[in-house]
Amino acid sequence: MALVPMSLLLKQAQKGGYAVGAFNANNLEIVQGIVEAANELDSPVILQASQGAIKYAGLDYIAAIVKIASEKVKVPVALHLDHGTSFEQAVQCIRAGFSAVMFDGSKHSFEDNIANTVAVVRVAKPAGVSVEAELGKIGGTEDDVSVSDKDAMMTVPEEAQEFVERTGIDALAVAIGTAHGPYKGEPRLDFARLQKIRDQVDVPLVLHGASGVPEDAIQKAISIGICKINIDTDLRQAFTAAIKQVLAEKPGEFDPRKLLGPGREALKQVAKQKIQLFGSAGQA
After folding, report:
1. Largest Cα–Cα distance in the chain?
2. Residues 14-65: pLDDT tens digits?
3. Which domains does the chain have, with CATH numbers?
4. From residue 190, how far is each of 37, 140, 175, 176, 195 by CA, in Å?
5. What is the pTM of this model?
6. Which residues are annotated as catalytic?
7. How far apart are the first and last CA of the chain?
8. Phi, psi of 86 (to 5 degrees)
């Protein structure tokens, strides 16, 4: 089916008490593995384009691949800009056919974050495109977006309420202790803070940096109100591990298809595990 607005998927998830997986897409094989996993489990799914993916594959290539993939499956698929850095980039993605965009104004002041987010909302909503924004700073590094541990700040519940009311966003990414990239130790999520945020706002909440977070913590976050969960590192690790295994067993292999194919299958299995963990299987 055609791409659908992300807000539609998240509202249904919020009502049903589950979360939709948002997986980063960088090339053909990754997109195929993700949508096949979702289709086999009858789950809605969100594919995301990060700053690194856009630089690597090109905005138009990513949009075209995901659009074709969405038309070949029976489940609803949203195409989302992850950590958008500017108003101009959000507009480019809307024009390219994305069904959702994120404006990450977390590095700006509270007022500037609101002003820039409002500008994106004003062009996205009339086009039927959903908008995610971030309040607080999520630590770690994702492609070109990096926040050091000392600069990572938790989302303030009272600010979340004002932010949502003034911007009109469809989803809010919150900082409650996760980080982008591999964890050095076991992450500790601030569930009390998440509950306060949930009590203050009624829009779907988003958990970034969820790769490596223990399953029980993921399930508890969903029970409190997380409706969208971003996964990237776990997929990358599975994809590259499978390729390395092929090369270890067959050092002379030079056919990209025989390297990327196993990578795609390994990634697909991890995506299926996440979908089942998030509770979205059978919810399409």
Report:
1. 59
2. 999 999 999 999 999 999 999 999 999 999 999 999 999 999 999 999 999 9
3. 6-278 (3.20.20.70)
4. 30, 17, 9, 5, 9
5. 0.91
6. 82
7. 12
8. -155, 165
